[in-house]
C-alpha cells in the first residue's frame, strides 16, 4: 500500500471519528449550558417557611403590590409574616396570614425599580424581622401605619414606605427621594443631614 493511500485512509478515519463524536460534544455543551442557567436562576423561595416583610407596602384591591409600591389599597406593614407560594419570571405570589391568607402578587416593573426579580424579592422579604429597636421609638407608630414623617432617617423611611423607584432615585444617598402615590401622582421626601425635613406632594 502506498503512502498516499495510507494517508487517505488515516484522514478518512479521523473525519469519521470526528463526526461520530460530534453529537457527544453537542450533548455535553448543552448540558453545560443548562447547568449554567440553573446556577444563574433566581432563588426559588416557594416553601412552607415563614418570611417577614422588610418594608411597608400596599396591595391594590388587596391582591397586587406593584414594584413601584403605589400607596393605595390594603396596607401591609413591615415585619408582617408571609408565606411565599410561587415565584415566576413576572411576579412573586405570597400569602399574609393576618389578612386571612389572602393571595397577593408582588409584580416587578424593572424599568422603574431598576432591579431584577431576585433583588426585589430579597429586599422585600427576609427570614428575620427588621430590628425596629434601632429606630426612634417616637417614629414606630408612624412606621407601623406607613406614614413618612419629618425627623425619620433613611432606614426608617424604607421600613415605612419601601424603596423609592430607582429610575427617579438611582442612589439612596440622594437628598431627595421620589415615591409614587398612584400611577400619576408622586411625592418627594427631602433629607438634610440624613433625616427627613420636608415632604412635598
TrEMBL record:
InterPro entries: TAT_signal (IPR006311)
Endpoints of the signal sequence: 1-46
Domain of life the protein comes from: Bacteria
Record keywords, A-Z: Iron, Iron-sulfur, Metal-binding, Signal
GO molecular function, one term: iron-sulfur cluster binding
Name this protein carries in UniProt: Outer membrane protein assembly factor BamE
Organism listed in the record: Desulfurivibrio alkaliphilus (strain DSM 19089 / UNIQEM U267 / AHT2)
Amino acid at each position: 500500500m502506498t503512502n498516499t493511500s495510507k494517508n487517505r485512509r488515516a484522514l478518512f478515519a479521523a473525519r469519521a471519528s470526528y463526526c461520530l463524536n460530534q453529537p457527544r460534544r453537542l450533548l455535553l455543551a448543552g448540558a453545560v449550558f443548562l447547568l449554567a442557567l440553573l446556577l444563574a436562576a433566581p432563588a426559588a423561595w416557594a416553601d412552607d417557611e415563614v418570611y417577614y416583610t422588610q418594608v411597608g407596602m400596599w396591595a391594590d384591591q388587596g391582591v397586587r403590590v406593584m414594584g413601584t409600591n403605589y400607596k393605595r389599597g390594603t396596607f401591609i406593614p413591615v415585619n408582617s409574616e408571609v408565606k411565599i407560594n410561587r415565584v415566576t419570571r413576572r411576579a412573586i405570589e405570597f400569602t399574609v396570614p393576618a389578612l386571612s391568607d389572602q393571595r397577593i402578587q408582588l409584580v416587578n416593573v424593572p424599568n422603574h425599580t431598576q432591579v431584577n426579580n431576585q433583588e426585589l424579592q430579597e429586599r422585600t422579604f427576609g427570614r428575620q424581622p427588621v430590628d425596629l429597636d434601632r429606630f426612634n421609638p417616637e417614629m414606630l407608630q408612624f412606621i407601623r401605619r406607613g406614614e413618612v414623617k419629618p425627623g425619620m432617617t433613611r432606614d426608617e423611611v424604607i421600613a415605612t414606605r419601601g424603596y423609592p423607584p430607582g429610575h427617579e432615585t438611582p442612589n439612596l444617598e440622594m437628598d431627595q427621594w421620589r415615591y409614587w402615590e398612584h400611577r400619576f401622582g408622586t411625592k418627594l421626601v427631602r433629607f438634610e443631614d440624613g433625616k427627613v425635613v420636608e415632604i412635598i406632594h
